[in-house]
Design brief:
The chain has 233 residues and is an alpha/beta fold. The chain contains seven helices and four strands. The protein folds into two domains: 99 residues, GTPase HflX, N-terminal domain (Rossmann fold, 3-Layer(aba) Sandwich), CATH 3.40.50; 80 residues. A four-stranded parallel sheet has the order 2-1-3-4, sandwiched between helices.
Amino acid sequence: MVERAMLIGITLPDQQASSTLSLLDELRELVTTLEIDITHERQLAIRKPQAKFLVGSGKAEELVEEAKAHNCDVIVFDNELTPAQQRNWEQAAEDKILVIDRQEVILDIFGKRAQTKEAVLQVELARLEYNLPRLKSAWTHLSRQRGGGAMQRDAGETQLELDQRMVRTQISRVKRELESVIKHRHLQRKKRMTVPVPTCAIVGYTNAGKSSLLNKMTNSDILAEDKLFATLD
């Protein structure tokens, strides 16, 4: 079943509406890369960011109802959401709609595209560091749902601490593995430098045609698709 998404771009006080539109265009391509159907998009301008939802509570409720009316499975924000804001949006949607931001979309794409060990580890590290501050928000919401007393809160805090410690342990492990892979790559590079063979690089923005150019120049068969981050390594 294909997921359905509503895209939201919010113009902050120090931004131009044209910039928001441009970023929404790119977000549309990113979400499409994940093979998610986009039902519609909303561009909003706010005078002052609000702590709870970024927008006002009334506007947040309106947007959630709009997403439900379009049978959306996910709301995607172009703006970066704090862990608490992300949790507040999902709570407003009664946990029936997933709420993510651009950063999480990119992490999902990277997770699907990473092929080399170094790239896989880099994506895993980024995902763990992204999720770590969101653990507390999730546990706070769970505690409120249960409506427990002090003993239940203490139990929740203990489990939260265990979860945080586990994620930090995973982060340390991935960093060690990544450091080892990077050292190995540097050694290989030093060996290559001893051979008098020229090297070159193709540099450009995602989906600019780098892979297509390389295929043409070297008669290679590297994956080349009209998608953002089609190739990552």
